[in-house]
Write a structure and sequence with these properties.
By secondary structure, this protein is of the alpha+beta class. 35% of the residues lie in helices and 21% in strands. The two termini are 52 Å apart.
Length: 662
Amino acid sequence: MLALGDLTQRRGGRIAIPVYLANAIRLPEPVAQGKMATTTHQLHASGPGYEVELDGETIQLPQALIEEPALYDRAIEAAREFAVEWAGRSPALEQFTNYLRAHHPTLAEQPPEVLVGLFLIAEALRRRIEAHRDTIWAFILKNSYRPLFLRGRFDLVVGNPPWLSYRYVEQPDYQRFLKEQIVRTYRLLSGRGELITQMELGTLFLLRAADLYLKPGGTIAFVLPRSIFSADQHDALRRETFKPELGLFWTELWDLEGVEPLFNVPACVLFGVRGSQPQRAQRAQKEEELAGEEGIPGEVLSGKLPRRNANLAEAEEALRVERVRFFLNRRGRRSYWATAAAAGGLFSFYRDRFYQGATIVPRAFWFVEVVPSSLGFDPNRPPLRTARRAQEEAKEAYRDVVFQGNVEARFLYATLLSTDLLPFGHLDFRLVVLPIEPEGEGYRMLTAEEARRRGFFGLAEWLERAQAEWERRRGAKAEASDLLGWLDYRRKLTSQNPRAAYRVVYPDVNRLMCAAVVRPEPGAPLRVSGQEILLAGFVAESLTYCMETEWEDEAFYVCSVLNSSVVDARLGQLRRRSQKTHPHVHKKVLDVAPIPKYDPEREEHRRLAELGKACSEKVAAWLAAGGAGEARNIGLLRRAVREMLREELAEIDECARAVLGV
């Protein structure tokens, strides 16, 4: 609205700009025959209408009123007035009808079912007044239905939708609605439901707004996070494989990453046109025939603005605009937009061998440290407390959680976070309590009840307290999953192999790619206060990706290739170059780097394995000698390691180029 200021000054006469406060993507649901009762009157609103949610309660809006917006507004205002007058008492329908006859005679002439519906609305407002929650509910009721009358009426829709990931939506009911829209209605995940938690709602808002409000042939332009360029959860958006009946296709793209100050997250602007379904199909066929060579016209904007919210004249003077074309590069199930069309290539043999580690959260429940004692302790049931680092790094809801108790050592495991990994090495293991035990080539979970039945009282008490805290702090979301189900989300914990001899691990989050070989040894000792505790093994955590292998040479070969600058350079197009948080790598590295299977007959493969082992031994000796010192900045430590391994990394790069065919 502020942006319209200069334009409106050039136009004479009065200008009306309607503004509605409503949920633009969740419209009222039609109900052919509604039914609702108050707590004190067994009255039901019948007849056609629409249902909306008001402060946790479902309210029915009679269709007869909605068909006349001016009448509807007066009706809601009358209901609010009556609610104010009767707050603290229990009125009957007759008293409400008499009130309308005296003050709003036009409304009193409505059919009986409409009067009942309006009375129930007044009762809902009265309850909120009595609960001291009467703020904007009448205003919301006046506006909530209006999007119904705006459908398909606009030639142009522009906006900056909410930038919020699906996982941050607190209301379970609203999460269910959003999931239905994302997965089924608009097919934004293309069978990749595991990405739902990362889904950016701005993309759903874009498609939903186009679907509901845009005329055929109309244009939509939205400001969005630049993650739509490469993030896996936006693959269907880039490929235009979402709801085909929508007929929406992309016509222009602006890259705003080089503009500052702007937002805290790199941004872009995406333009689309709503054509017919055949038009969209013809465009998709043409794009396929050209193998993506045509691309989308666009602009790359860069420069430093004189201030936030700079006006157009200031922006035009400060920014450099480069006209480009953005090409959709495809690699299997992965895609990304870039200003150059990348050559296709093979995929890594190891892509499906890597898996994301387990979601060991809330960390305050599971990450622990042994409480030292000058008097000694039982190493089979050591005294534990929530690790201080886990407390410091915890989300606000769990920052004050501190568990203490003795837990059986057979449930103590080692793990690493992404910030513990170095090229060819890692910092100290972190200690975690986990209710698992080896079973074949995986693990099985133990409940508190089973642990107590089998005599593991320390673990049982720990789990019971953790479940109680989970239910109290998790709130409504706890109903969707219990604590152990969350811990073993998608079996990322129990499917890990306790018998794996070697693990190649790389951090999910990094600016420069690095990897290390971890050699888990069940029964490895942990020394505390002069005593040894035997750990049950190693598990990979969700901030890392891990590959298991029985062969030492294969492990060090893969580790060497992942640490090469050749692979890191190939990740460039999939990374966001400037942001406050580090970018997620996921399995992108294994899409852009087609690492072939280890072949001991090939000299480059053998040499990479030898170099990987030598580098790992050198880093381990450096750490053991205190090379890291007191430094805890992982970026500085990784640079120090690369500097120490400069000669070895140069040879690794040479071998990696030969192996990858660069």
